[in-house]
Amino acid sequence: MSRKKDELNQRDTIDNTKEAPLTTNQGLPVSEDEFSLKAGERGPTLMEDFHFREKMTHFDHERIPERIVHARGFAVHGEFEVYESLEKYTRAKFLTEPGKKTPVFTRFSTVAGNRGSMDIPRDVRGFATKFYTEEGNFDLVANNMPVFFMQDAIKFPDFVHAVKPEPHNEIPQAASAHNTFWDWVSENTESAHMVMWLMSDRAIPRSLAMMEGFGVHTFRLVNAEGKSHFVKFHWKPKFGTHQVLWDEAQMINGKNIDFNRMELWQNIEKGIPAEFELGLQVIPEEDEFEMEFDILDPTKLWPEEEVPVQIVGKMTLNQNVDNYFAETEQVAFHPGHVVPGIDFSNDPLLQGRLFSYTDTQLIRLGGPNFHQIPINRPVCPFANNQRDGYNQMYIHKGETSYSNNTINNNQPEPLAPEKGGYEHYSEKVEGRKVRARSDSFKDHFSQAKLFLNSMSETERQHIYDALSFELGKCDMEIRENAIYKLLNKIDRDMTEYVADRVGVEAPSEVEESTYSKRSPALSMENTEFSLETRTVGVMLTPDVAEQTLKETKSKLEEQGLQVTFISDKIYKIGDITLDETFDTVHCVLFDSMILLKGEEKPPAPVIENLEIAYKHKKAIGYGIDSGDIFDMLSFTKDDKGVADIEKDLDGFLEAVKGHRVWDR
């Protein structure tokens, strides 16, 4: 079943790498593409110049509406392999045949910014995967956070309007640090849990391959016998879950707006795939009301200590797209794209998304035939009585386009469930029509406190500082509302810290949640640590020997590090050409820094890079005759995470592997 992406495209690829004549869209060979047709060399352009008109008309219509949210995205092809049969939970074929491989296409994205915004704002990340299964496409439309801002989809437009740039001046771009966002979350306190996630390090990932993914909603798995289990989907990254610092993120966005997407692209080009394991949290239907919260509430997570994550398969993303627009921009995800054995719960946010996603694709992709775009097509045959419409790509043969019919022997014909036809779970539903919410959804603060309780001291401080930064960008009235109506209901220590930082008098009445449980799985300290894909910027002076460079590069690359040599200009030392200069890169673009200094005095940017790397708690190495450099620095060679790579390479590598030297 596993297919390369080229097989998905079939005859729909135009390969401009091959020799071919330049033609119009109708196939007419063109003899001249430099000049428009004119009445004389200095005369007006003629209307009969069909080549110019076609070329310019197409150019004028190249842009399509960007996504309202998740506009800035980056996508990769790959495959998913299931480890063992999950037939006790579902009849989905891609999950019930051990070792079965299914082609996938995964798009990562930010939420709030436009298509041209930066890679590392403080924001939620989309993590959407299209499985091209033999039973049709299944879309797992996930985020890198397991909860969301609201409980009912009817409030989604309000939230997006609040987090987007303010309408009177279109400021700020891709940021939540402004009045309307904090006004909305203060007045809609069901967002309290999600706000804690957004203010945490989860909102500024080090890499697209270093963040978790969560299906957010409660779905159903239904097996061949009709037995139902509630399920939440998880993606667990092979490289662990890691972040950048907020100060560092702001500098990265200034140095390389494409930092996350470029890293993923380059690693895949080097043959280093991004790998994620799929995990399931499963609750039998009969246990729906056994938790202390409503499992259908999208602002709540299921603590992994209470409902363990079962690892069931692995996704390997290993092939870049051929064309960003055709694939990444035109791919259309939808939580309603399911296969037999996967169904929905009554989560009111999920229910609303089942309408919204189709609706938005209709205008963004030009009509109801967006499923015919190559990146969206299933790999299995499909047939129905739908006809015509904008961008119809198929020639439908036959006299009928309706059901039931005798002319065509009632083809295409519905398929019985036992033969593979989709069947909705037969859930018993009853009740009066009301605009209301269950009382079981009304606890807004316990899991916000659970998240905060579960953080390490460092992570907790980062949340405090993020809140101080965000509210410090707001008007005083908005700051007060956020502190009184939101933060004071979660945690008093956090409230007093932030209030003091932003010039607000802390509330006299203590109203913090008394929830005391912890979930260690929520802390990013309890993740995988690896040297794979980690980067090191090696700064050097011109008098460093070629052999030293070769030995340093070899030792580091043997451990999985990616080495970049940096100096004040591009030149060669023996056979080695230096990669970058201080004008083109900066320490914020690397996981660690090394200085190799001979007797020559290092250029001024060396000091700046070392000081900032130290400030951002990165591993720092030095070698050759560089001990005297510390006379020019604010830290010493005895500080934690600072190592002589000739004498203590293992110490340096251990610091890099740990991601940051938090206790420096």
Automatic annotation (TrEMBL):
There is a cross-link at H334-Y357 (3'-histidyl-3-tyrosine (His-Tyr)). It is an enzyme of class 1 (oxidoreductase). GO terms for cellular component: cytosol. It holds the Pfam family Catalase. Residues 23-411 form the Catalase core domain. It catalyses: 2 H2O2 = O2 + 2 H2O. Signal peptide: none annotated. SMART domains: Catalase. Its EC number is 1.11.1.6. InterPro entries: Catalase (IPR018028), Catalase_AS (IPR024708), Catalase_clade2 (IPR024712), Catalase_clade2_helical (IPR043156), Catalase_core (IPR011614), Catalase_haem_BS (IPR002226), Catalase_immune_responsive (IPR010582), Catalase_large_C (IPR041399). Gene3D superfamilies: 1.20.1370.20, 3.40.50.880, Catalase core domain. GO terms for molecular function: catalase activity; heme binding; metal ion binding. Heme binds at R67, R107, F156, R353, Y357, R364. Residues 1-31 are annotated as: Disordered. Keywords: Heme, Hydrogen peroxide, Iron, Metal-binding, Oxidoreductase, Peroxidase. Its cofactor is heme. Residues 1-18 have a biased composition (Basic and acidic residues). PANTHER family: CATALASE (PTHR42821), CATALASE-B (PTHR42821:SF1). Decomposes hydrogen peroxide into water and oxygen; serves to protect cells from the toxic effects of hydrogen peroxide. This is Catalase. It comes from Salinicoccus roseus.
